[in-house]
Amino acid sequence: MKFICLLLLLATGGEYLYFNNQLDSNRRKLIVLSKENSQLKNRVKEIKKYNSLSIKFSEPLYSYGEAKSNSLLYLSPLETSPILCKMNTSAKIKLLCTAEVLDEIWYEVLLDSPKNINSRGWMKKDFIIINEVTTTSINFR
User: Fold this and answer.
1) Is residue 54's pLDDT more than 90?
2) Greatest pairwise CA separation for the chain in angstroms
3) Domain count for the chain
4) In this structure, what are the phi and psi dihedrals at residue 39, rounded to the nearest 5 degrees?
5) What is the CATH number of the domain that holds 110?
6) Do 118 and 126 touch, CB atoms closer than 8 A?
7) Angle CA(14)–CA(18)–CA(19) in degrees, nearest 5?
8) Per residue in 61-75, pLDDT tens?
9) Are residues 124 and 77 in the same domain?
10) What's the whole-model pTM score?
11) Are 32 and 90 part of one and the same domain?
């Protein structure tokens, strides 16, 4: 009888320790998730700060260019939009469209990439070198 009570007491103590560890782990996860949630809320507030946004689209003067190294490719022509990729080296690009947003010039570009994943997006004018002399095309898809 004493053996069964001792075994039952040990099992109860083990369960207590196990569930206490689970509770602590979930508390830590909840704290991390609440911090991430507040950061995302702040980011959404930044994105929503544009009450009226006007974008002036036009055809680019040149069809091809070169993206500088360490340039960023954005999903939309806003610095608060998600970054699709960061290019570590310079790359040839095709200029598809020009947009003026918040007094900045952006180009919609197509990267010369064998993959069709994240190869089209928006770049600031500062990250693009346009060779005005050459009018030769690049073999794009």
Assistant:
1) no
2) 97
3) 2
4) -65, -40
5) 2.30.30.170
6) no
7) 120
8) 888 899 998 999 999
9) yes
10) 0.61
11) no
How many C-beta neighbours within 10 Å does residue 138 have?
13
| Contact yes or no for 124/104 (Cβ under 8 A) | yes
Burial 91-109 (b: 16+ CB within 10 A, else e): bbbbbeebbebeeebbbbb
Q: Tell whether 60 and 121 lie within a shared domain.
A: yes
- Classify residue 33 as left (phi > 0), alpha (psi -120 to 50) or beta: alpha
Q: Is the separation of the CB atoms in 118 and 73 below 8 Å?
A: yes
- What is the span of the domain harbouring residue 91? 55-129
Instruction: State how far the Cα of 36 lies from the Cα of 105, in Å rounded to an integer.
Output: 32
Residue 29, pLDDT above cutoff 50: yes
Tell me if 140 is assigned to some domain.
Answer: no
Alpha helices in 48-90 (DSSP H): none
- Residue 3 burial class via C-beta count within 10 angstroms: exposed 0-12, middle 13-18, buried 19 and up: exposed
pLDDT tens by residue, 83-99: 888 888 888 899 999 99
pLDDT at 49: 67
Average pLDDT of the chain is: 85
Tokens of 118: 């994240």
